[in-house]
Amino acid sequence: MSENPTEVEDNIVKLLQENIEKRYNEETVRTGWDLAQLEFECCGAVNYMDYNNTAYNFPASDQTVPNTCCKLSNREAALDDPSKATPNDSAKCYSRDETEIYTKGCKDSLKEWALKHSTIIIGVGIGIAVLEIFSIVWACCFCRNIGKDD
């Protein structure tokens, strides 16, 4: 049942691509991807081709990728509200001109971010585990004392 790191990474990429393909039309998923693409200046999981089969209907008829995959004229404002992302040249971006679209995928940027912040992620996980163990111990002590007279 053990998987090697390449298999794990391949499975994560597959999940990310399925997320774009099947769930990008959900606002929360779309906002998450848009923020990641803005922050890391990337597009899709592997690259912009991940948007080929998405169920999402883009606002412009010629649009093939989200605006957040494009090089923007208002990047700082878009970080506050991704729906306001305005491409420098939407025609070039939508036609996937590599001068106006981010060509690298987000998986590598997300992996780098997770590795950079792994200490914090592990610390938070341990903190939550300790809190849960403490809660279980407290609940057991509380249950043992129910109905006992002082």
Question: Could you provide a short overview of the structure?
Answer:
The protein has 150 residues and is an all-alpha fold. The chain has helices at residues 5-23, 27-40, 75-80, 90-94, 106-116, 118-145. The chain starts with a helix and ends in a 5-residue tail after the last helix.
Descriptive notes:
- The chain is 55% helix and 0% strand.
- It is mostly helical.
- The radius of gyration is 22 Å and the shape is elongated.
- The mean pLDDT is 91.
Can you tag this structure with a few keywords?
2 domains; membrane; transmembrane helix; transmembrane; Tetraspanin_EC2_sf; Cd81 Antigen, Extracellular Domain, Chain: A; 6 helices; 150 residues; Tetraspanin/Peripherin
